[in-house]
Amino acid sequence: MVQKVSSSFYMYLGYLFVALGFIGVFLPIMPTTPFLIVAAFCFSKGKPELHKWLRDHKIFGPPLRDWEDHRRIKFSTKITVTVLILGSAVSAAFVSDLPEILRFMMWGVMFCVVVFIWLQK
Description:
Blueprint: H1 7-26, H2 33-46, H3 48-56, H4 61-70, H5 75-94, H6 100-119
Helix pairs in contact: 1-2, 2-3, 2-4, 3-4, 5-6
């Protein structure tokens, strides 16, 4: 039998994803919007006021509203994300001391993110 997940669990999970999204603003290898989309979902289940706050946020609100209302990503956002991911991949190839297997895994994740973004309307 499936138990109902408590609203406080969703609320704390939402805070975690907002924090990860905020970190993503400063680290190009970490995407911001997907974390905020998950945070918005969690807040909608756990704390609707925070969901509304996130949707109404001056910076984070527009991409969230586009996604929640229309399931779309703006063309300019697709270009920006692709360029940032490509820059991260190139810098990881030449600057990083990561083991080769981790670089390939990172590139695989980046590739999947770019494909997902471009498949959205």
